[in-house]
Amino acid sequence: xxxxxxxxxxxxxxxxxxxxxxxxxxxxxxxxxxxxxxxxxxxxxxxxxxxxxxxxxxxxxxxxxxxxxxxxxxxxxxxxxxxxxxxxxxxxxxxxxxxxxxxxxxxxxxxxxxxxxxxxxxxxxxxxxxxxxxxxxxxxxxxxxxxxxxxxxxxxxxxxxxxxxxxxxxxxxxxxxxxxxxxxxxxxxxxxxxxxxxxxxxxxxxxxxxxxxxxxxxxxxxxxxxxxxxxxxxxxxxxxxxxxxxxxxxx
Length: 251
Known about the structure:
Strand content: 15-25%
Helix content: 40-55%
Distance between the termini: 30 Å
């Protein structure tokens, strides 16, 4: 009916490409992660979740220490259309849904023979069905050269490497990179890279780093510009991230 898995990851931890026979809801209780599937990547902020259809191949990478709480749902609940189309998407997790996820993780699984478990299951599906989509989605370039450049953008070791140098490493000129990215993603390479770097700043905030330092890690000189971008892209202000961190630290 419904099963769960609780895993805490160290900063930089990764899960290689894999899939599950059941639909999967990954709740990022703390930290932030990058999920790569199909033709793009999803950046999942703390307090958000990502929903994956059954058999969807995906890979995970943690930006900082992350606490993931996962529910595995019978794929039939997605086939009925109750949770919308069977596609990867990120969701906002309200306080009630968050507590429901944690409740299931504490008991391990739900058994349809138990009345209380059926009630929990129905309530979870109801909350999921009305959860709004939240998060950052970045389409990956389809051309192999653009895809190589995107991989370099996502590598922590290349955060401070100039764009032109990364283009050369990917075997593509700056002009060609501009065309490849705009044709496939709708963004310039610089803007695509800047949006991805926002996740780095978000992860730093969720670890307790001050706003100015997080802004610099994300490539912003001014904290005000960083705060505005964070709110526009993730729907989270630095203050909201701090409050969430304080709540998660409570016993």
